[in-house]
Amino acid sequence: MEKRFVRTDSLGKDRNHNRYWWFQRDGRVFVESSDSKQWGYYSSKEELNLLMGSLNCKGERERELKKQLEKFYSRISLALEKRSKELAQKIAMEDESVVRRSTRVRAPPSKNPANAFLEYVNKWKEE
Prior knowledge:
- This protein is of the alpha+beta class.
- The protein has helices at residues 45-54, 60-71, 73-99; strands at residues 12-13, 19-23, 28-32, 39-42.
- Helix content is 39%, strand content 13%.
- It has a 4-stranded antiparallel β-sheet with strand order 1-2-3-4.
- A hairpin with a 6-residue loop joins strand 3 (28-32) and strand 4.
- It starts with 11 loop residues before the first strand and ends in a 28-residue tail after the last helix.
- The model has no long low-confidence stretch (mean pLDDT 83).
């Protein structure tokens, strides 16, 4: 049942009223600007740790946000690590496919009768 659950409530807000969201399926923490026109995200555990360290516990909004992040920290960090591993594997597979080259040797092009005029030599030309 939990795999089908989509979190519809935000984790909280920061001092600038930016909303923080965590969607388990995506594996990132999204940030929505206060005017809802811009989005950003945190995609690594280090970024999440820096975010949590930068939150001011004296402010009401940031204190609540930090509590929510601490509450879901283990799940969020596992999702971030899983996503980064999947991306690394995907990039490695793409790099591997680019490196592969065909070992077959191309045969020389056969003579095309339509291009026979290119081989014409003027034998009547005076030198």
